[in-house]
Automatic annotation (TrEMBL):
<dbReference type="InterPro" id="IPR057106">
    <property type="entry name" value="NXPE4_C"/>
</dbReference>
<feature type="region of interest" description="Disordered">
    <location>
        <begin position="109"/>
        <end position="265"/>
    </location>
</feature>
<dbReference type="Pfam" id="PF24536">
    <property type="entry name" value="NXPE4_C"/>
</dbReference>
<feature type="compositionally biased region" description="Polar residues">
    <location>
        <begin position="246"/>
        <end position="264"/>
    </location>
</feature>
<dbReference type="Pfam" id="PF06312">
    <property type="entry name" value="Neurexophilin"/>
</dbReference>
<keyword id="KW-0732">Signal</keyword>
<feature type="region of interest" description="Disordered">
    <location>
        <begin position="43"/>
        <end position="90"/>
    </location>
</feature>
<protein>
    <submittedName>
        <fullName>NXPE family member 3-like isoform X2</fullName>
    </submittedName>
</protein>
<feature type="compositionally biased region" description="Basic and acidic residues">
    <location>
        <begin position="68"/>
        <end position="90"/>
    </location>
</feature>
<comment type="similarity">
    <text>Belongs to the NXPE family.</text>
</comment>
<feature type="domain" description="NXPE C-terminal">
    <location>
        <begin position="499"/>
        <end position="724"/>
    </location>
</feature>
<feature type="signal peptide">
    <location>
        <begin position="1"/>
        <end position="25"/>
    </location>
</feature>
<dbReference type="InterPro" id="IPR014756">
    <property type="entry name" value="Ig_E-set"/>
</dbReference>
<feature type="compositionally biased region" description="Low complexity">
    <location>
        <begin position="183"/>
        <end position="193"/>
    </location>
</feature>
<dbReference type="InterPro" id="IPR026845">
    <property type="entry name" value="NXPH/NXPE"/>
</dbReference>
């Protein structure tokens, strides 16, 4: 054998030996576990289940399987949400789902996160995001925002933002004045945090609603004393107020046939729990529906709510309502007494009817006045039209007698008489015949929409038992009565004929001696309408004055009644026009409130009370606003000279109705708007607004523009408590 042959054969043997040694060493690339996943790959684990991994954060377990980092309730992109029993390790292979024990789960209609839902009906478009869902992120994530302080799925309880008035994702920015009556243009259905509305037919989900939670878990209650915004909801309108732009009627009156129906609207407890105690809050959610039982997607309905007991005690309170702008409302009650309590909800006006009222007040002259001008030469009185409204003034074609007072922000125009001079008129009255013809400006549908309100209560079977609380509602925890107090969760409650205020430490049951001690050495001026004249009459009787006032309905003042021995003087004067009603009234008895405020001599023993509302309901809201701004200027001027003078505003109250014309001019919605205007314009001054709206709303008497004598006595107890808080 040659040397060359031996070298070739030896080299082959050496290579063979090296190959054997290499095989015996078992390197990783020849391991049987060849399919082990590398970072950012998707492969089969030992158990045969697929797991989708994201980024480079995969952690391998001791057995070679890839496990998912255990971050609390956090899902990676394209992962499945947790199952109902809390397990995360459901996986997908092909079209079959596997549970933790590798048993296939055939969920035919299961929708993966960030996938389009199955088409339930022909009308559903592809790629349409269901209402109340967040839009899927482009990277396939779950849509959780890093800056989002409250994220919850459709089946979770609502998470309330911990920052007041902060708009959450998918919210509209809160209005600065937070008025209730302003309708949102966002017609999105209620959010993921609003419980779905279920029809009575086998839990069928109504259109635009989330699938119901099978466990029917209760949502978290709103925190007291703060109007929190639910996630993904429109911001609440806190006080039922319309927009300053009263001519903005976004909702067309053509929607009347599908307006809010009191028969179809529902209500249920929002914060249900096993035990309620005195001092707790009860929240009731109202879901507005139309006549076809379809949930409304806009707000603006005018509801009232009341919680009451009739045995063994007679007690009641009114609820504070928050409008979320999407057909959902929350009524908040403070439980002030123990026993069985029942909630009632009444639809006063649908949002469609409210729009009619707004349009009527803004664009239709509903009340006309005429005044008499005395002609000395002819020795007779000539009557012409007069108005506060610049719109109607334009109809006078330039023949105008202008009696406006820019210094106190008052407008007053009269059509120039033909023969009499343009001197101030000697007497004025409402032109009832001309005013009644305004009815013709309303369609039959509009009339029906307004009249059907305040007739039928919303269907609600809500009753709870309230247990006693050892401490109850501690009066000591309430502030001392005075101006500019914080807004309470409830104004108070009636209990066996006595009003218990929750705004301040009000005293109750003032007898004659206590009232005289409080009013001793006081000069009290009251200027307002006949509802404030009720105060005057009862004050005069209480202090046993020498000359009792004339209680005739035509009584206008000015008048004063005196208790000489205690140096108490009580003055009353009816406010200046507008004054409704046909009787002719002499103009020399009237004085503008702003003039009186600036002219009186004030001081610590001087009290001035305003009660302007009942005769302003039928006027454009600008008339009332301008009058209040003039009064505001006068109060500021007066306090610059006499800072100790006490000013009060007696708020509006509810009333009943018989005819369409009366409702058209004096709807309770109008009266409530005037209360809100007074708060807005005068609330930041050193002025006390005695809010009797809730007292009237939940009283046990029939609603009347002139409250029952028992109610007036409770008004005066509040009045005394503010004058003499100690």
């Amino acid at each position: 054998m040659g040397a060359k042959t031996i070298l070739v054969r030896g080299l082959g043997i050496i290579l063979l030996l090296l190959a054997v040694l290499l095989i015996k060493s078992k390197p990783t690339i020849f391991d049987g576990n060849m399919n082990r996943m590398l970072p950012n790959q998707i492969g089969s684990s030992t158990g045969g289940r697929q797991v989708a991994n994201k980024d480079d954060n995969v952690i391998s377990s001791g057995g070679g399987e890839t496990s998912i980092p255990k971050e609390m309730d956090k899902m990676l992109g394209n992962e499945l949400p947790p199952s109902k029993d809390g397990r995360q390790d459901i996986s997908i292979e092909g079209n079959t789902a596997y549970s933790a024990d590798d048993k296939p789960i055939f969920a035919e209609d299961t929708v993966l996160p960030n996938q389009n839902p199955p088409r339930i009906d022909v009308g559903q478009e592809k790629d349409t995001v269901l209402p109340n869902q967040n839009t899927a992120n482009k990277d396939g994530g779950q849509g959780k925002n890093k800056d989002d302080n409250s994220v919850s799925s459709a089946n979770e309880k609502p998470i309330i933002s911990q920052e007041k008035d902060k708009a959450l994702p998918n919210q509209n920015t809160a209005n600065k004045d937070e008025r209730q009556g302003k309708n949102s243009n966002n017609n999105t259905a209620s959010s993921a945090n609003v419980r779905p509305i279920i029809s009575k037919e086998n839990d069928k989900v109504l259109p635009n609603k989330n699938t119901p939670n099978k466990n029917e878990g209760q949502e978290n209650a709103l925190k007291s004393n703060e109007q929190k915004v639910l996630a993904n909801q429109n911001p609440p309108q806190k006080d039922g107020r319309e927009s300053k732009d009263s001519g903005n009627n976004n909702a067309a009156t053509s929607a009347l046939p599908t307006g809010t129906s009191s028969e179809k609207t529902g209500a249920h407890i929002f914060n249900r729990k096993q035990i309620y105690k005195v001092g707790d809050e009860l929240l009731v959610r109202i879901i507005a529906r139309d006549a076809a039982s379809r949930p409304k997607t806009i707000g603006g309905d005018f509801f009232t709510t009341m919680l009451s007991s009739r045995s063994p005690v007679n007690a009641s309170t009114a609820g504070r309502i928050v409008d979320y702008g999407n057909g959902t409302y929350i009524a908040r009650f403070v439980l002030g007494w123990p026993g069985l309590v029942t909630a009632a909800v009444r639809l006063i006006h649908s949002s469609e009817a409210v729009n009619i009222l707004k349009k009527s007040r803004s664009h239709k002259i509903r009340r006309f006045f005429s005044c008499g001008f005395f002609d000395e030469k002819m020795n007779n009185t000539e009557w012409t039209s007069c108005t506060f409204n610049p719109i109607e003034k334009a109809n006078y074609s330039g023949n105008v007698c202008d009696f406006s007072r820019p210094d106190i922000n008052v407008t007053w125009y009269c059509h120039r008489p033909k023969s009499a001079p343009c001197d101030p008129p000697v007497e004025c009255r409402q032109d009832r015949n001309k005013s009644l013809r305004v009815d013709d400006l309303f369609t039959e549908e509009e009339k029906a929409s307004l009249l059907k309100g305040d007739r039928v209560e919303v269907s609600a079977n809500i009753s709870v038992i309230v247990q006693k609380n050892d401490k109850g509602i501690e009066p000591k925890s309430l502030p001392q009565c005075g101006p500019r107090l914080p807004e309470p969760a409830s104004e108070g409650y009636w209990y066996n004929g006595t009003w218990y205020s929750l705004r301040c430490r009000a005293q109750r049951g003032f007898d004659r001696e206590a009232a005289i001690r409080c009013l001793r050495n006081k000069n009290i001026y009251l200027q307002g309408d006949s509802t404030l004249r009720q105060w005057y009459s009862d004050l005069a009787k209480t202090i046993n004055t020498v000359d009792n006032p004339n209680e005739s309905p035509k009584f206008l003042g000015p008048t004063v009644t005196t208790n000489h021995s205690n140096n108490i003087n009580i003055h009353f004067r009816f406010h200046h026009f507008p004054v409704s009603g046909p009787p002719t009234r002499p103009m020399n008895v009237f004085s503008f409130a702003a003039d009186d405020i600036m002219n009186i001599v004030g001081g610590p023993n001087v009290v001035f009370v305003l009660g302007l509302w009942a005769h302003f309901c039928a006027e454009p809201v600008e008339t009332f606003r301008s009058r209040l701004y003039g009064i505001r200027h006068a109060i500021v001027y007066h306090h610059s000279k006499y800072p100790g003078t006490k000013f009060f505003v007696r708020s509006s109250n509810t009333r009943g109705f018989v005819t369409f014309s009366h409702l058209r001019d004096n709807s309770n919605w109008y009266a409530y708007q005037l209360l809100l205007e007074a708060r807005d314009i005068l609330g930041d001054l050193n002025v006390t607004i005695i809010d009797v709206w809730d007292m009237s709303l939940c009283q046990w008497h029939e609603h009347n523009v002139h409250p029952h004598h028992d109610v007036i006595l409770n008004h005066l107890d509040m009045f005394y408590s503010y004058i003499c808080p100690m």
